[in-house]
Amino acid sequence: MSDRRDSDGDELTIGEASERIGIASSALRFYESKGLVTSRRTVGGQRRYARDVLRRVAFIRAAQSVGLSLEEIQASLEPLPADRAPTKEEWELLAAEWRPRLETQIATLEAMRDRLAACIGCGCQTLDACQVFNPGDKAAERGPGAQYFVLDDE
Fold first, then answer.
1. E strands along the chain, which residues?
2. What is the mean pLDDT of residues 106-132?
3. What was the pLDDT predicted at 154?
4. Angle at Cα 120 formed by Cα 114 and Cα 122, nearest 5°?
5. I need a surface site. Which of 50, 57, 60, 85 has the fewest CB within 10 A?
């Protein structure tokens, strides 16, 4: 970890921001090109990032790590102010918006984990008996996709 000071105390250069966040400068430029973060340019054309970019990129990286698309992330960040750090209340609104989606995703992941564990220990040798591989195509009634890994009432 470097002990360098921020360029002017309030803003970070692209190198400083990248180092603090733990990502490549190219990733930060990519997020900026997608409108997920903003910077201002100096007279010499160099990027300067407000310190709130650290929080925004942490949110972006966390959302990506649980499988959310950049489009979903961008839609969530749009209501937040681009010219200042979001307030606690603004972040809480974003969190409340995401809570149902994340709860569903957690429940689906838990169901998948539990069913995979049951499958590994089951010992069935035929697709006719296997509940994961859809005997008799019973899951077709539920719709397309991996229906036995989707959260349900079973």
1. 11-13, 40-41, 47-50
2. 68
3. 46
4. 95
5. 85
53-65 vs 25-33: helix axis angle to the nearest 10?
90
Spatial separation of the C-alpha atoms in residues 88 and 122, rounded to whole Å = 48
CA angle 18, 19, 25 (to 5 degrees): 30
Residue from 85, 2, 73 nearest 38 by CA: 85
Please tell me the predicted confidence (pLDDT) of residue 84.
Answer: 79
Residue count of the chain, please give it: 154
Ranges of beta strands (E only) in 33-133 are 40-41, 47-50
Select from 108, 90, 99, 92 the least CA-distant residue to 147: 108
Structure tokens, 66: 């649980």
Contact 16, 4 (CB under 8 A): yes
Q: Which two tokens stand for residue 152?
A: 């349900």
Sheet holding 40-41, edge to edge: 11-13, 47-50, 40-41
Is residue 123 exposed (0-12), middle (13-18) or buried (19+ Cβ within 10 Å)? exposed
- Whole-prediction pTM: 0.66
In the block, which residue shows the tokens 């190219």?
26
